[in-house]
């Protein structure tokens, strides 16, 4: 018996046939989703539930995924009857493929069922059309007469008022019937082909390329790249999968295989030198650069959230809400202090956030950040609070980007092309990382804050979540201090 496809597995096969094969036959080879991705999925689920509130008389087919046949039978009963005009999560099986339709609306004028797919995006994408096309194909093969096909998106112009969210204003439906109908023949053909693929005893020979991360990151990337050498060319800074695919087609797999004719920038040349020699590259200007920064040094890091559903009055979808900062201060006597701020979630924290930060960093001394995100956030806050713009501008003038400083003056082969602080920290400070933290990266921190604001964190766990948030942000600035101190040690010891 041929394995079944689901809607998500079909879309995965549209992205890459090999992914479809592995999904069907060797799902345990997939890299598990990390906490940030799971938090994003949970947010998407809540978004879909909110969308359903637009049709209060709609009926939800809530049979679990492993009881798909039950959802199909329930759906058929509702369609055959005349009492329900809106169905959520309707189930169908046809063409060897199972689908669940987000929203089906009975059109009394046309006697057809209009199909609506809910996406937490502000614009329609090709993958959305593919998603809807396979649904339409399965519904029509099941005997359903489908009318229009639309995607329900976020209206980025929506502004939340002082009351609760108004779903009718937050969402917009964009008709994609023409685009979906144009795709339908190719989607039906691909569906048939994918069943042949997943039923085959031979795995498709698909090379690594941009499709591994477009439109979604593939869970099988680690499996597909497991045989690559330690010095794989993807481990060069700025080498995306398009470039990697191009070089691999010419037999260039390892960094040591790169010829002198390949055009590289200064950073890439340093990475090649370091990787081939298996030793760190250190700028001969490192000591001079470090000594020019001055004291007291303040190392700062922000946590922000940009939720699809606005958290506070007078905010819009994906408007950046800065809710937390950490600051470590390193004085010339090597003493180290720390201060921080974390919003409680009761109201828009942005003014309190920036005012408390300005007090904490004072008016003198360099302020070190890791990347340009803090600058961007502060510029946004300066626009939001014009009366604070002068103070914010003065603060921005003191900024030193530790990330750029590191890129220009140090490279270790174990960086493997990445200057992410989570990659850099354990290399430069062995034994020190984020693995002991309950919250270990920014997206999870953002999701935790949104959960607090929206009341999904119970009183019995609130203190723990707040503590975890504080510890995570504190770790970021402490990591910056440790990296700085390691650079000082390297400079003092002549590059070793």
Can you offer a commentary on this structure?
With 496 residues, the protein is an alpha/beta fold. It has 3 domains: 5-199, Lambda Exonuclease, Chain A (Alpha-Beta Complex); 224-279; 286-492, Ribonuclease H-like superfamily/Ribonuclease H (Nucleotidyltransferase, domain 5, 2-Layer Sandwich), CATH 3.30.420. Helix content is 44%, strand content 16%. The protein has helices spanning 7-15, 17-25, 35-52, 68-80, 126-141, 167-170, 177-199, 221-224, 241-248, 266-277, 286-291, 350-361, 373-384, 389-396, 402-409, 421-428, 442-453, 459-492, and strands at residues 5-6, 59-60, 86-94, 97-107, 112-118, 146-154, 171-175, 281-282, 297-305, 321-330, 336-342, 367-369, 399-401, 410-411. Strands 1, 2, 3, 4, 5, 6 and 7 form a 7-stranded mixed β-sheet that branches. A 5-stranded mixed β-sheet has the order 11-10-9-12-13, with helices on both faces. A hairpin with a 2-residue loop joins strand 3 (86-94) and strand 4. Helix 1 (7-15) packs across helix 2 (17-25), helix 16 (421-428) crosses helix 18 (459-492) and helix 17 (442-453) packs antiparallel against helix 18 (459-492). The N and C termini lie far apart (62 Å). The mean pLDDT is 96.
